[in-house]
Amino acid sequence: MCPADSLREAVPVREADAASARPHTEDPLRDLGVRTHANGGTIRVWSANAASVELVVFDPADLERPIARSPLARDAHGVWEAHSPALVAGAVYGLRVDGPDGPPHAFDPGRALLDPWARGLHPAADGTFRGVVLDPLAEEGFDWGGVGKPRVPLDRTVVYETHLTGFSRLNERIPEPLRGTYAGLAHDASLEYLTGLGVTTIELLPVHAFATEEWLRRKGRANYWGYNTVGYFAPHAPYASAEARAGGAAAVRHEFAGMVRRLHEAGLEVVLDVVYNHTAEEGQGGPTLSLRGIDQASYYRHDAHGRPVDTTGCGNTIDFGTDAAVRLVLDSMRYWAGELQVDGFRLDLAATLGRDAHGTFTPEHPLLQGMLDDPVIGAGKLIAEPWDVGPFGWQTGGFPPGFTEWNDRYRDRMRDFWLGDLRRERHGEPGSGIGRFATRLAGSSNTFAADRGPLASLNFITAHDGFTLADLTAYDVKHNEANGEQNRDGTDHNNSYNHGVEGPTDDEGACGASAQHPQPARNPAALGGRADAHGRRRVRAQPARQQQRVLPRLRTHLAHVGRRRTRRRPRGDHPAPAAAAPREPGPAAGRLRAARRARADRVADGLVHARRRHHDDRRMARPLPPHPAVPGCVDAPHRRVQPGAARRARLRDARRRAAADPPGRRRVRTAVGFRRRGAGRRARHPRGAWGSRRRGAAVDAALPCPRRIASRLMSGLVR
């Protein structure tokens, strides 16, 4: 018998029975968590398999000493409910839950558990957490001052991904007590920098309350990024200033809300990176903090034998085939978007959020549709990381309209075009060509359905995972030895190029690549940041203090691709002669022309399957071997004809092939940059899209409209 039993505030059985017997026409999962009122508060929690649930209110000064207890009564829908006059603002509480023994259950009536819907958190000495009762923000006196959400259109959005602490921890323009805090991000120096970059949206790495994994704790290390959530409704208290932490959970929430208000005043949106796919309870043998002890079998995914199913790589996976799990996420998102006024969410491993009771991803999942249908959540930005590590986990392009998705294909193609082709060219190997690059630049029409359009793709080059932009130009392979995992962590596929020197170097040739800043493509969003803008390198997967990224600018680099190079007048100590005598082109000039033609062909391969004919000195038409990139491409028969007649014959062949095409396919009758003036007339040959004259070219390719659009876009960028 606990000595504090005399302080128990038990709900009379007849009142609880009456409450459970009342007919409810509302949603049975309404108002989960604690709701305060004039006579204390009411707590509601869902557990399908529990045999008993008890509310315990603790002394804030001694979390081992309970000062009030109340049993919860169950209704027909598995919701446990109780009223207690001790549930007032600032009260620290927990839940004790009992139930069946053995897998997949993990009930322990002696353990105090965190309410999954708790608005505030209080850490205990043993590494567990207690909930803190908070009144609505408006009732606590917080004033938004009439500041609304910026609501930046998606096609004008540029996202700046940053770590809240890392952003300002080293900024000497910010007062020392505010560095690395919510208030530090809201400081005038931070706002001046962010608005000067021209970004529109700040995406914060996880700020939900999180904990360090047990295996990291045993090594004396701490989780820096925050992808290990404990509470989905509470801001992470260590990110608040010391003054706010001393004021408790309410003061921490006030500081977070004040940061959002200041960013909105500056015209900047706030998007949160949220981790709803798993929790900090890890895998088997992990800590029991909340959901595991309340009803592990219902909240987490298991197979038919009761074994955990992990599609996140983090030890556990929340089962979104359960209505209560879906409601937990929707309530959390509505709270942050409504009461705390954030502008959107980046959904970590979002493919897990769309898996049904059988573990199959479906875009019609109630959770995904619930986000879109909710008037508060759906009005903001919904950005999905469209994959997980489970079966058929890569779902880029598979989310319903209304979601924007991280486009990993765009990331890989931009890196390959920028650095991979350069590496191959220096090694004498053919490049990947402009075709796939143009497809990604023009909106990835081969990945996203036509009804979603290019705004469904969030285009980025670097993010918090993997290499920074500077690392891409300095390392061929990862070097994560400092993490103590024998360099196993992190991907080996980075599409990087060290330019001949692995690691930092003062070599001007290698450093020159780091100075290339191509102009941004016209796509809805990209990830940006400060650290890469300053040329910082971070090879280790273990996070450093700064995690920001920069949006690479593509146009400068693009302008050099396939550009026609001409001889320039010598400068300096070698002035050009006053009157250079005309001379016949020699073998070197012929090789130069051939090299230019070959470069133009490599650039055009994959965008337009053009067939080029070369003419010998006798102006005889000679076909080339079949083009390797065009299966089934066959040249016209070898004929001794004059060039004009050959062109007309090839155009007639192209028209016949176009007429035989199935509906929905478009055939380009002339090469890029060609234009027919009329039937029977000679084709005109202006300068090609890539700056070289194309003679005697014919096209043997059926191009869908998006590819033609990409062709025009690319030619416009280069010119």
UniProtKB/TrEMBL annotation:
Matches recorded under InterPro entries: GH (IPR017853), GH13_cat_dom (IPR006047), GlgX_Isoamylase_N_E_set (IPR044505), Glyco_hydro_13_N (IPR004193), Ig-like_fold (IPR013783), Ig_E-set (IPR014756)
Signal sequence, renumbered to the chain? none
Region annotated Disordered sits at: 1-32, 482-666
Q: Where is the Glycosyl hydrolase family 13 catalytic domain?
A: 161-522
Indicate, by first and last residue, each region the UniProt record lists as having compositional bias (Basic and acidic residues): 482-492
Biased composition, Low complexity: where in the chain? Answer: 541-551, 575-592
Q: Which PANTHER family match?
A: GLYCOGEN DEBRANCHING ENZYME (PTHR43002)
Q: Tell me which family the UniProt entry assigns to this protein.
A: Belongs to the glycosyl hydrolase 13 family.
The molecule here is called Glycosyl hydrolase family 13 catalytic domain-containing protein
